[in-house]
Amino acid sequence: MKHNLKITIILLAMFLVTQFIGLAVLHADIFHIEQEVNGTIQEVVNPQLSWIQPPELKTDRDFFTIFPSLLIAFVIAISLLFLLSKFNIEFILRGWFFVVVIIALFLTIYAFEKLSPWAINPTLAILIPLVIALPLAFIKIFKRNFLVHNATELLIYPGIATIFVPILNIWTIIILLILISIYDMWAVWHSGFMQKMAKYQINKLKIFSGFFVPYVSKKVRAQIKKMRKSKNKSKLKKKIRVNIAILGGGDVIFPIITAGVMLKTFGLAPALFVIGGAVLGLGYLFFLAEKKKFYPAMPFISAGIFIAMILSYLIL
Predict the structure, then answer these.
(1) Contacts of 41 (CB under 8 A, 6+ apart)
(2) Residue 316, pLDDT score
(3) Which candidate among 46, 126, 239, 295 keeps its CA 20 to 30 Å from the CA of 3?
(4) Average confidence (pLDDT) over 198-212
(5) 219: phi > 0 → left, psi -120 to 50 → alpha, else beta; which?
(6) What DSSP string describes 46-79?
C-alpha cells in the first residue's frame, strides 16, 4: 500500500464525496430553467449563464463533430501549461488557475441555489456564488491554506463537469477515457511529465490541482513527541520529513463527467454504477501501489468504469 490505511481512506472518501456532489450539480441542469411559455411550463435556456452556455447537441453526429475540437482544446491546454512552466511564468499560471477556480466554484454554488427549495432573486443568484467563490479562490491560489484547498477541490470539479457533460455522449466519453488513460500511462511511466508537473505545482506555484494530504509516519510522530518532551529546544528546529498523498484533478473529474453522461442518457442507477466502479478501480490502485513509486490512476479508474458500465447494462 502506497499510503497508510487512514490516508488511503481519506483520499477515497474525498473522491467519493466529490462524485456525489458532481451528480447533484449535474442533476440541477443549471443551463436550463423552467419558464411559462404560452400558458405552458417549458424548459428554456438559462439567460443568466449565456456567457458560458455549452452548445446544444441533438444527434450522435453533432457529438462526433465537436469531439475533435474538444481533443484539440485538451492538447492546447496541456501544451500551454507545459510552456508556461518551462519558462517559469508563475504569475500567468496563478492567474489562469485563479480564474478557472472562480468559474468552477461559481457554477457549483449556483447549482446548489437551483436545488434549494427557496426561490432566489435572479440578481442575488449571481451575486451570492461570486461573493463566496472570490475569497475562496484567493485563499486557495495565493494563501495556500490546506483546509481551503481540499474543501474547494470538492466543489471545483463538479462545476467544470457541467461544461463538458452536455457536449459528450456515451461513445465519445468511452473514447475520451481510453485516450486519457493511454496519455496518463505515457505521462507517468514513459516521460515522467506528470511527476514533473506535480513537483512544479507544489514547489514553485504553491498550488496543486487535486487532493493534497500531507502526513507523517508513526516513526516521525514518535520523534516529534519525544522532541516536544525534551528540554533541549534546539531539537525542535530539526527538519521533519513529511509525506504527501496526492490525487490529481483529472483523476477526479473524468469519472464525474462519465457519471454525468450516464445520468443524462440512462438515468441515476447506471450513473451510480459508474461511481462505484471508479471508486473500486482507484481503491484497487491504492492498495496495489508500492511506496515511493508513481502510478497513472486513470487506467485503473477507467477499467472500473467500463466494468461498471457492462454490469449496469446486464443488470438494469
Answers:
(1) 34, 35
(2) 86
(3) 239
(4) 84
(5) alpha
(6) -GGGTTSPPP---SHHHHHHHHHHHHHHHHHHHH
